[in-house]
Amino acid sequence: MKRQYLGKKIIQSLATIFFVLVFNYVLFRIMPGNPLAMIMRNPRASQEAIERTRELFGLNQSWYVQFGIYLKHLFTGDLGTSFLYRQPVTQVIVARIMPTVLMVGLAQILATIAGMVLGVLAAWKRGSRIDIASLSFSLVTYSMPTFWLGIILIAVFSVSLRWFPTSGMLTPGQSFPNQLAMIKDAARHLVLPVMTLSLVLIGEYTLTMRNTLLDVLTEDYMTTARAKGFDDTYLIRKHALPNAMLPMITIIAINLGLVIGGTIQVETIFSWPGLGRLMFDALKARDYPLLQGIFLLITLSVIVANLIADVTYGYLDPRVRE
Amino acid sequence: MDKVVELKNLKVTFVEKQSFLKELLTKEMPLVRAVDGVDLTIKKGEILSLVGESGSGKTTLGKAILHLVDIAEGEILFQNQAVNFKHKKETRRFRQKAQVIFQDPYQSLNPRNLIIDIVAEPLEVNGLVKTEAERKERVMKALQDAGLDPPESYLYRYPYELSGGQRQRVAIASALILDPAFIVADEPVSMLDVSIRAGILKLLVELKESKGLAFLFITHDLSLAWLISDRIAIMYLGKIMEIGESDTVIKQAEHPYTQALLDVMPIPEVNRHRQRKVLSGESPNPTNIPAGCRFHPRCPHAFDRCREEEPVLQAVNPHHLAACHLIEKKKTQEKSHD
Amino acid sequence: QEPLNTMRVGVTVEVDSLSPLISYSQIGYEVFQLVYDPLVMLDENLETAPGLATDWQISDDQLEWTFTLRDDVKWHDDTPFTSADVKFTYELLMENELGMYSGSLGGMTEVSTPDETTLVIRTELPKANMLLNACPILPAHIWSEVSPDEYDAWPNSSPVGTGPFRFEEFRPGEYLKLAANEETFHGRPQIDELIFVLYANTDTMAQSLRLGEIDAATNFSPSQLEVLNSDASIDAIAAVELGFVELSFNSWDDPSSTSHPLLLEPPVRHAIEYSIDKQRILDMVYSGQGSVGTTLVPPEGFYHYEPTSAELRDYDVLMANQVLEEAGFADLNGDGIRQAPDGTPLEFLLTLRADNANEVQAGQMIAGMVAEAGIKFNIETVDDGALMDKIYSGDVDMFIWGWGADLDPTTILNVMTTSQIGNMSDSNYSNETYDRLFMEQQTIMDPDERREVVWKMQQILYEEAPYIILFYDNSLQAVNTSRWTGWRRIPDEGGYFFNLTNYNYLNLQPVAGAGDATVPATGGSDSLGHIIGGLGIMAVVAFFVFRKKKAANSYR
Amino acid sequence: MELLRVENLKTYFHISQGIVKAVDDVSFTLAYGQCLGLVGESGCGKTTTALSINRLLPPEGKIQSGNIYLEAVNLTALSDDEIRKRRWKEISMIFQGAMNALNPVMKIGEQIAEAVVLHQQVSHQQAWGRAKELFELVELEPDRISGYPHEFSGGMKQRAMIAMALACDPKLVIGDEPTTALDVMVQAQILNLLDKLRQNLNMGLILITHDLSILGETCDRIAVMYAGKIVEMGSTEDIYHEHMHPYTYRLLRAFPHIRGPKQMPEPIMGTPPDLIRPPSGCRFHPRCDYAKEICREEEPGMTAAGDGHAYACHFGGAFNG
Amino acid sequence: MSSIYREMRLKKLAHFWTSFKSNGMAISGALILGFFTVAAIIGPLIFPYNPMEFGTVETILQPPSTTHFLGTDNLGRDIFRNLLSGARISLMVGILATLISMFLGTSVGIISGYFGKAIDSILMRVTDFFLVIPWLPLVLVLAAILGSSVWIIILVIGLTSWAGTARVVRSQTLSVKERPFIERARAIGADHSTIMMRHILPNVFPLVFANTILVTAVAIISETTLSFLGLGDPTRPSWGMMLHYAFQSGAASSGAYWFFLPPGLCVVLVVLAFTFLGYAFDEILNPKLRRR
Ligand SMILES: Nc1ncnc2c1ncn2[C@@H]1O[C@H](COP(=O)(O)OP(=O)(O)OP(=O)(O)O)[C@@H](O)[C@H]1O
Ligand SMILES: Nc1ncnc2c1ncn2[C@@H]1O[C@H](COP(=O)(O)OP(=O)(O)OP(=O)(O)O)[C@@H](O)[C@H]1O
Ligand SMILES: [Mg+2]
Ligand SMILES: [Mg+2]
Question: Where is the ABC transporter domain (chain B) (predicted)?
């Protein structure tokens, strides 16, 4: 049973990936400036270089052959060469992955935990001060443009209070006596960007958690559980949460796409050396191969995250295993 | 008497929903044989009750007659004619003549429509009214026929503003507005409070009598069936087990399944700690219908033949048929006694 | 162990490549002149000074140059430097025509090395800009290992040069780190570590500078200048730069172009120029940093031509209207927009670069100004790439962009030659006389004589106005003087860095006792003010909800 | 010996439209091993009565006054903690619609075992052992104990629910419409099972239903509720044969009797009253065929009509003559 | 008879109003939004604003004063007036984009849920695609391709934000589809479009409505973000554009809080108002939440 569910989800994901590939392919071909023009724009491009590109992209072939070539290159991990950096796209991307993963990962974890705690508190004490406070907090942070929040946080915590550095991932050029010192330095730099990103996310998580939990709390099985004589903490932990977690998982995964949007802003504000900024730079520089590569990577990771969420869902909810 | 509906060896199957992957990998798909070979006629001015446990295929049979589900095999004659559902006009004419009332009056009315719109919908869908005044008039007449008096006070309300009984009457009104010849009433009272049920039942009987309507009355409550219908058909796992005039079926039940159903019927009488002959197990599932007599695994009287040979409906008397090997056995026993 | 004296420079653009064959960026230029040495460099007065070559002679026919090279220079990996390295570098660049330096090598026909310290270069024609070629000399022992096929892709990820700084580390997206070269003929710099820190926005960069996280920075926005200067330890300047911002018309006079035919008419262009109050835009958008523009070659150089008062089209709305009136453009239907005799209105599309807020705002102001002359500008904003596409396909009326120039005028003059259409030319301008003069000026060795020709060229351009040069803009730089002293602007109105010389990097002195622990800066308070204000408002909102909620509860 | 005594219980819901007097002065008693049927139309306050006993009312519901004694303990006076300890151990419930009353993401066995662990201080393993026993008791295959609710059919879920209710050997089990929405056949199975278990385990059982006809086989006593009040209470015989209240009479007449004469059941006209603004006097008077002036004005008290038989009507037994 | 009809409608409205007015979030949301709507409609009439009219050097970045309530921007324009006219743009973008998104999301959701099978599979994969595809990057790319006029921004936001609605509508459609009144409609011979328009749409609409309001909030933030990243329409200075200019001109670091804070706060407030309303409607219209 379980394997079938998994299989179905994987097939669905593959279908989505296929859409993404087609879309990616089409999008970057209808974008102004086809690959050839991009190469030719380089004033020094030699005739051979143009020929090479033509062949590489199969521009002299029919569109489906071109798409095939595109797929073939993808499967061999060849995403082309960045116009901007003159390096294989994969190489450029790999160099920038870690900072983003670090920041997004931390922010997601923090936001999930905080959002769940706040959401649970709010739902359990519905109508109380705690509920109102956490609700207002979530709604207000949820309503803030990410970049604006980031700037405000810099103004408060870096400029006024001097607690954290304004930007970057490490103090630039610092050589660290040991690993620990470096981690400490990185941690100081991480605080504000992670805070910005998680604050924006917390809102949605809190609200989702609160709403699903309120839903769950009205379910008949909660009355049953209460009738069994359990106390509130046990009820929440053992009965309400496992049920309320189900929609949360989906939201968290879907949010990953949103978080990436947030990273573009956060990385710009905090000069964070990650993928979001790389992508924005690539966009501005019309570095199509790079842009396409990042786009693909991000989309794939969101799809994979969704797949993982679906699988987790299946694991947590016996009903969908079939 | 006029036959309104005639079913010949009707079969309805569903493909059990399963995962895409499995669909890809396996060629054969498990079939749900919801209705599995039913012959039946319903006559003008008659209420035929269809009784059986949950999952026995009652609703499916009802829907099949109205062509709301696809028919796998067999034939349906409506007023002695086969309806060609590919033909739009013919379909439309059929839809006007055959209507349905559903079990749940809370769910079967669109909560966002006004009563007048709900009742008038069949008229509109079939393009049968021209003017607003005519529309209202016909709706009022239908409401009145369904026992909602005075009709004006219901026109501009929403379903949630009505009680369950009133809602079911609205549903009936909407079924009546096209002047149908035949109505499938799928457990029309099972969701209603006992105190209201009687009114609806009375209405159905009245309609049958005053308009000569034919009803297929679906229920799992034998006593209701007995009270209002002319004939009763007992269904088990997609097949008719026993059919006959209602008194006969209740008072002289031939089929062990009918007897079991009768035995578990609650009666408002002090009968403390009566140990009822309750059939064990639940209604088995129609994907896997037992060989031989489909009832044999739960039958207290099952014998070898039941496991091997599927009994057909046979006449106990001209107005009473049952599908059970016991009848023959009894007959041979009687004969040998003679 | 002595603590290192580190200097951090904030930049908003990072090197596009560490290979001089690939890079085209200003920051690349700056880094290469620190890591590598050219034959001849520029001193603090922007005069030529010995680089790797200590001395040079030119033959009488002006076609052969002989350079005497230093004999005591070592590459950062301790390999000795010889004339073979120069020959290798020049030939590599000339053959492959790669990177931003190859252009300045144009005209060389042969490079020979009689011995390890002598280099002879022959040219086809006299080469006026021979000494202004800043091409970094690359180590032959490293680059000869690279296959020629890979020149346009080999990343040179760990450059080895002879320059005053050695390359340490490059972290894309973060910073680039150099360290002082102990043995350099420049004399060891006081800066032990030089770090170019990349900022994704100028706002945080300004904050960082004030907080002492960096010691210097460039590319600020004009309005930040004043605030930065209010900080006692910060010296923020608007440095004159060899560059300009222009309003460029699509001059592609061809049926396949979608250029606006009316814009090809000089009176229209002239009227537009008359109606633009450049000084006001400069004051408003650029905080007055820079100067009003006229001709193609920026005024700081020797070759700048200033139009005579008769030629000059200074801001004058009356003139603008008059010019149009005389050319037959009148507003007959009274909608405020003049029409050509055939009824076509003077309505054009001005394309702006979306991510350049200054240009966008300047464009908006211009649109407002030309309306006074009965001309309508519609505005669209696109990104650089899209604008580039439009330019190359001729699908644009006019746009605002900018150029940076060299000390030698050749590069910037080249932009307007016919041969550059489809390449560097963004106005698609073509004029035979101009093209001929361009070829001529390259070969005139006498500066004054050469200037005559260059002036003539500028006159032509000013009259035909494919560009309206709006301003000669400034580069906004700021340094924190509390940790490093000895900052010098080069030239006098110029910048501390990105000024074609590495003088400051070589001569800055650490302030005793300043340490690396950053200097406290003032000015946090005003930010605090706006934060508190903001939080206050949010609190009010929260309170509002809170109150309402409570009411709802008691209702229940 | 009395197991449960409910005295003048009033439970109101405070909602924005007003106060719903869902249970309004209800008293009854239940002896050990006895089964009481609580019957009435939808919305008359049956579930509310049950929830009041266990103090499981939703936040807007409040016990206004009255006492509920389980043995000698007044449940209404207990602290939240104390009542919580007594839940399930002393009073357990079988809820209306078992399909929703079981946690869908928890194994059924676990749902039974957790209650055992909580109330009987046994190891988790022992609790599972107990759960297995209970499964056998309710005639379910013990192997299916680690299944999830969705794998069970309606009847099986109801059995599992019963098993759960019996987990801590409660003194009192309240079954709130345990067979509604089940098939006749399965309903009969479940009722048989409940009856058998009650006798074997000697516990008190309150059986809540709106189907008067199913009580004859299982209950010793029946209380008929109407609009938040008990209108008649007595032994099953009393209610079926000697009923004195017109509502009981009408209710009985609304059921078809398959073994009796073929007679159409009779509807009760009108609709159940609005419990925010209940009718004056006798609450049934707007629907009563025998209502007189006094019924509109004066609320009838309980009149005794024999041993343990009482009714609230000014004209008890009026329909007889 | 129409008077009864009107009366019933009024009763329903009154009922809604009762729940609405006892809901703090709804009231605050409505008040804030009302305020901004009025400001957007009549504000520019009283305080007209022309983005092409610039101040002089002296009026650049002036702090709040009696002549300029909220000071001036880097081009000497009045910030208060700019805010008022920005409200129009921001609200317009939010609302129009939402309409597009609502239309797409509802159609796709209903069609997909109603027809099921292959249509559902295909539409849902497309929806999934729009759901998983990182939203901002996509919008950035699209905006870069198509250019940055307000209309294109509206279109882009609308085209990329419908997936969530589609999913919600689809699942609601699936459950509505199973309700007997749909079967009843089929039994009386209604065709697919009638069933979808007349029976399914009205029943999914409350959900769409609540969802839509939330989409509006997202759309406004999106516009702000796009503008901030330099992809806005400079000729129609929305709040996002103001923030963009403020940031580009270094207002945040140079202490010009009056340039930087007000547009941001306006965005926060308006988005908050929409979010409030969305959640409140959800609470009012979603019977499950209401039950407790
Ligand atoms: N659309 C469908 N797809 C698959 N199986 C179906 C479908 N509809 C009905 N079935 C199956 O067909 C069988 C008969 O169902 P049907 O609804 O006709 O029973 P019923 O006698 O009306 O039961 P009830 O008394 O519960 O209404 C059941 O096993 C049911 O699961
Ligand atoms: N949480 C609540 N808030 C407001 N009113 C309520 C609430 N719960 C129940 N009521 C009202 O209290 C009355 C009694 O409800 P209760 O659920 O006890 O009835 P019941 O007899 O169990 O009905 P049913 O047979 O439908 O289960 C009803 O009128 C109901 O509307
Ligand atoms: Mg059915
Ligand atoms: Mg109840």
Answer: 15-262
Concatenate the DSSP letters of all residues of C189-242 into one string.
-S-SEEEEEE-S-HHHHHHHHHHTS-SEEE---HHHHHHHHTSTTEEEEEEE-S
- Asked if residue A158 is part of any domain, the answer here is yes
pTM of this prediction?
0.81
Please state whether at least 3 CB pairs lie below 8 Å between chains B and C: no
> Out of B53, B197, B272, whose CB is closest to D265?
B197
- Inspect the interface and report whether the beta carbons of D16 and E292 lie closer than 8 Å: no
Ligand 1 nearest-atom number relative to CA B63: 18
What is the number of alpha carbons within 13 Å of residue D196 lying toward its C-beta? 12
Q: What is the pLDDT of residues C185-221, one digit of tens each?
A: 888 899 999 999 988 888 888 888 888 888 999 888 7
Establish if A67 belongs to a structural domain.
no
Taking residue C488's Cβ as centre, other Cβ atoms within 10 Å add up to 14
Closest CA to B78 of B49, B41, B106: B41
**How remote is the CA of residue B57 from the centroid of ligand 1, in Å?**
6
Residue A195, domain CATH: 1.10.3720.10
Please count the structural domains in chain A.
1
The enclosing H or E element of C538 equals helix C524-555
Angle between helices A179-217 and A241-269 (to 10 degrees): 140
Q: Where are the beta strands (DSSP E) in chain D?
A: 2-15, 18-31, 35-39, 61-70, 73-74, 91-94, 172-176, 204-209, 221-226, 229-235, 303-304, 310-311
φ and ψ of C348, to 5 deg: -130, 160
Asked whether residue A91 is assigned to any structural domain, the reply reads no
* pLDDT value, residue B240: 92
Residues 6+ apart with CB under 8 A from C362: C245, C281, C285, C400, C470
The answer to whether the beta carbons of residues D224 and D247 sit under 8 Å apart is yes
Ligand 1 contact, B51 CB (< 6 A): no
Q: Does A119 map to a domain?
A: yes
Choose among C9, C2, C4, C3: nearest CA to C505: C9
**Count of B-D CB contacts under 8 Å:** 129
CA–CA min distance A28, chain C (Å)? 13
Amino acid in position E241: M
Q: Which residue spans within C38-192 are E strands per DSSP?
A: 40-42, 48-50, 53-58, 64-69, 108-115, 118-123, 165-171, 175-180
Tell me which residue of B68, B99, B101, B215 sits closest to B167, measured CA to CA. Answer: B101
pLDDT bin (cut points 50, 70, 90) of residue C536 is low
Rounded Cα gap, residues C27 and D124, in angstroms: 70
Predicted local confidence at residue C122, as pLDDT: 92
Cβ partners under 8 Å of residue E166, min gap 6: E104, E105, E106, E108, E109, E112, E123, E127
In eight-state DSSP terms, residue A290 is H
Report residue A12: phi and psi, to 5°: -60, -45
Which 3 state secondary structure label does DSSP give E233? coil
Q: DSSP labels for C454-519?
A: HHHHHHHHHHH-SEEEEEEEEEEEEEETTTEE----BTTTTBSSSSS--HHHHH-EEPTT--SSPP
Tally helices (H) and strands (E) across chain A.
Answer: 13, 0
The ipTM of this complex is: 0.79
Helix (H, G, I), strand (E, B) or coil at D204: strand
Say what the alpha-carbon torsion angle B247, B250, B252, B256 is, to the nearest 10 degrees: 150
Please give the structure tokens belonging to residue C517: 């622990």
Cβ <8 Å between C392 and A41: yes
Distance B34 CA to ligand 1 centre (A): 6
CA gap D128, C68 in Å, rounded: 96
- Which DSSP helix (H) or strand (E) runs through B6? strand B3-15
pLDDT at D321: 54
- How far apart are the CA of D71 and the nearest CA of chain B, in angstroms? 26
- The verdict on C387 touching E (C-beta cutoff 8 Å) is no
Q: What is the span of the domain harbouring residue A294?
A: 96-321
